[in-house]
Amino acid sequence: MVRREQAGDWPIFHGLSVAEVGVVSVEIARRPDETMVSAAADVSRILSTALREVLPGDRRFTLLAVGDKVATPSRIARFTAERDKLWGALERSGSALPHGTRVEHSVNGQDHLRFAGTMCFEMGELPRALEVTRTRSAVCVGWTAEHPVDCHDECWSIASTATDSTSLLRASIMELRGNRFVARTYGRFDDSAITSEVFAHHALLSDLDRALSNLP
């Protein structure tokens, strides 16, 4: 099922100026005997195929992610966090990351340490990156025009101000411009349906709608 909505109708975005932003969601039902990972891979591939149809040429994306808080009074926890940082910690916890150029920095609070980061990757890695967004505090950012020369700098301010998946998505939506869009996959625990979503201005969503309707 493909669904199109106004972002402003979602409670998560209340209070934000998102009148020009819409959402296209691709949802599939998960069979009782199907794993969450398998269903999520299917819906992510559908969305990735449609995006490839509407984005000419080779496109790059950026994965934005925010790590968990680590209490700084614990020397062992702090040592582990500073050793693994963001991407290493995600890999150690079982996340299969896309191949790409990684950047990560610490974001310190008064009594805690946190890492946030960006990773630039090619279009072919999008399904793998979307799986990270399903299980972690992360989103994928793409561009309808040429991607920025330094996509890390373009996205770092978003990642560095977020604290969890909700604030990261809200911050990403607030930074949407005409040629930028945000994608993620959602579905956890025993959900019976898995969804991949694109948040963007309406011109891209109209093209994406048509591409999805033409998929076999």
Features:
alpha+beta, 37% helix, globular
Mean pLDDT: 88
Structural class: alpha+beta
Radius of gyration: 17 Å
Shape: globular
Largest sheet: 9 strands, antiparallel
Count of alpha/pi helices: 7
Description of the molecule:
With 216 residues, this protein is of the alpha+beta class. Helices cover 37% and strands 30% of the residues. Strands 1, 2, 3, 4, 5, 6, 7, 8 and 9 form a 9-stranded antiparallel sheet that branches. Helix 1 (36-54) crosses helix 4 and helix 1 (36-54) packs across helix 7 (202-214).
Summarize the model shown.
This protein has 216 residues and is of the alpha+beta class. A hairpin with a 6-residue loop joins strand 8 and strand 9.
